Amino acid sequence: MRAQQVQIVHSPTLKTVMAIEEAIKNSDVAISRNKILSKLPTAVMRSTLNTALGYLEKKGIILETKKGFIWTFNPSKKLARAEEDGLEV
Predict the structure, then answer these.
(1) Cα dihedral across residues 80, 82, 86, 89: positive or negative
(2) Does 14-77 carry CATH code 3.40.50.300?
(3) Is the model's pTM score more than 0.90?
(4) Model pLDDT for residues 9-34, shown as the tens digit of each residue
């Protein structure tokens, strides 16, 4: 009989995701994964970091470039107002 392989996936906590957001948001230039890990207050596994980065990128909050990650989220008051006043079809 073959032993079944179990894949261990570490999900990030909200606190970890928020710390990663802050590290990227406060960076003036594109920031690498290694630099993000060094700026976090607690140790985070690489797979957990990758899961959190994937989530943030999927939500349109960050963008991965050749040089690293950049903050792209820009809450616009005008856009929010336009969405509220817009015609629903």
Answers:
(1) negative
(2) no
(3) no
(4) 778 999 999 999 999 999 999 999 99
